[in-house]
Amino acid sequence: MSPSHAIKMWEKVVIPIILYGSELCSEMTKQAICELEITQRYAARRIQGVDRRSSKATTVLLGLLRMSTRIERSKLTLLNKFLYETEEFIWKKVFDFRICQFMVGNTKQKGFVADIFPVLEKYQLEHATNNYLDRIEVVSKPVWKKLIDKTLRDAENKWWTKITSEGDLTRIGNIHQDVTLCDLWKICNQNRQYRHCINIIIRLAILKTDGDVMCKLCNKMCDDMTKHFMLNCIKLFKERDSLYENILNEIDINLFNDLWNSDEDILIETLLGSQTDLMRPDQISAAEWTSFMCIVSKGLSEMWTHVTNCFIEV
Length: 314
Ligand SMILES: [Zn+2]
Fold this sequence. Notes:
Elements: H1 3-18, H2 30-48, H3 55-61, H4 67-84, H5 90-103, H6 112-122, H7 127-133, H8 141-163, H9 170-175, H10 183-190, H11 195-206, E1 213-215, E2 221-222, H12 225-232, H13 237-250, H14 253-260, H15 264-271, H16 286-307, E3 311-313
Antiparallel strand pairs: 1-2, 1-3
Helix pairs in contact: 1-2, 2-3, 4-6, 4-8, 11-16, 13-16
The structure holds zinc ion.
């Protein structure tokens, strides 16, 4: 099953079961949230066939919201139901009573009302309760859903930008800049035979090098396994030449020259799927980019067969 199909099952079948009733969970501990995040990361790794490293990137590559964000979304969705409904329901009257208590200073109360105010403040959505208390019309469910989907997705993108601005996730952060399903996995929908090759690209993009390591193929030291493998290892020059020849046969000569003459990091990121520098949508069509990535992934997966377990730590 392709990751984009597997992720639909995760979202539509598994997540509703795991988070059933979470909108009413009050004062969830950090430990409980952490265990939920670990569960989702485990699923994301299994779906993509990658190892335990760079676990935060694995959920982002599938466009998955963090579990903490999902819980906040379910609370915001329930809030709209409370605000929008008429007063004929007893639970609506209890809600009104509780919110009035909270607004007059009884901030020690526990439960949904106490939980929702920090969430509203975090996402700057306080106008929802303010409008309600001022008897301004409450927005309908579809309008509210659209608003919170956009607000929470923007917040997730900001979080991803922040954690990838430095450290081990910089490369994958440059390649994959938003919390959305990675375009590389979408290629597998029409080209299932490339699933393994795309998996190699994803692995290279999130591969971390812990300190200096020695390449067992050429006995050279390096501090970036992906860079050494893709650009520098002299034992792989034949496979690398073959890859560049295939790329040259596929893309425009001017684009190939730009690629060849680009900065090393940009070259690596472009070969690993980045569409922000050379392969921007205004430079190359989606179909051409797909063909390019199929050729690159096939070439890199052929090189990868020489590489498995070839780096040792020193
Ligand atoms: Zn080497």
